[in-house]
Amino acid sequence: MMHAGSGALPRELGRRWHGVKRSFVASLLFLTQHGAGAFEVWLPQANWRIERSVVAPWAPTKTPMPTAQELAGKSIRFTATRVEAPEPLACAGVRYEFVLMPAPGLFQGSLPPPAEKAARGLGIAHLPVLSLQVTCDSGVFDYHLITTGKVLLGLNNAVWTLTRAAEADSPEAATLNLLRVHMTHDMAFNPASVARKRAYLTPGLGGAIADYFKRPRPHDEVPPITGDPFTDSQEYPDRFLPGRARIDGARASVPIRLGDGSRHWEVEVLLLRQGERWQVDDLRYPGGTTLRGLLQPA
């Protein structure tokens, strides 16, 4: 039996942080897995290696340092239908979401207050954190993405570090990296926020955005873009699923399904291969409108 303060709980114990959203999560995941038609979920393909563990901040006082290293050195791989891993992490009937989590939601709400201080004590330098949430037949597991190559996982009274080698560049990986940076920082559409994401954008899109901000506009005029164009939202999403890319030579498109706790919607990320890298060149919204179209002078 897994400890109730771990980052992986048996299904019957539920989740303290996102419990109010479970019906939405279930419906979104069900649509994604069984009724989304052409929407095929994409997952990082590299194997994750379980490295080491430390005593969790929620563990009882005087809990000894973890000595059972049966997980150390083992690998975890996420597939469309199961998690291939040592027990108790292996499971079938999987459903996935990338979920944005503030400090109180990390490790399924188990961090002692103040949660921000406890998170930083585990080496989490930036909050909120994007997490891969895995729901399967044996429970719910949260893999907290600290960097593109490092994950923290709570299990019983220990926090495990997982690492992976750099993954080959792909349209899906480039889209995931953009969204991780975007959603874990200020999502407002302004020059400072865009500058943070510039490495993930083509020079053409970056230049079009810069021209948009330079264009003079009356103070009493509503700008063409009033929300977040990277997620097509006024109220920011807190979760998403990337779909499988459609690639045509040096161009690709990646569908993204986003949710905010009460609804879900899709945007299409359009990418261009620049040398050895994929970069975002545009976004297409329902109805056919594009970000580049919104950036043009009226």
Largest sheet entry: 15 strands, antiparallel
Radius of gyration: 20 Å
N-to-C span: 61 Å
Write the H/E string, N to C. EHEEEEEHEEEEHHHEEEEEH
| Structural class by SSE content | alpha+beta
Which residues sit in consecutive blocks of at least 5 with pLDDT less than 50? 1-36
Residues in β-strands, percent? 25-35%
Helix fraction by DSSP (H/I, runs of at least 4): 10-25%
What is the count of β-strands?
A: 15
**Number of separate helices:** 6
Tell me, what's the shape? globular
Overall pLDDT score: 86
- The domain count comes to 2
List keywords for this structure.
alpha+beta; Nuclear Transport Factor 2, Chain: A; 15-stranded antiparallel sheet; globular; Putative lipoprotein YbjP; lipoprotein; DUF3828
Report on this structure.
With 298 residues, the protein is of the alpha+beta class. The chain has 2 domains: 156 residues, no CATH class; 125 residues, Nuclear Transport Factor 2, Chain: A, CATH 3.10.450.50. The protein is built from 6 helices and 15 strands. It has a 15-stranded antiparallel beta sheet that branches. The termini are far apart. This is Putative lipoprotein YbjP. It comes from Candidatus Accumulibacter vicinus.
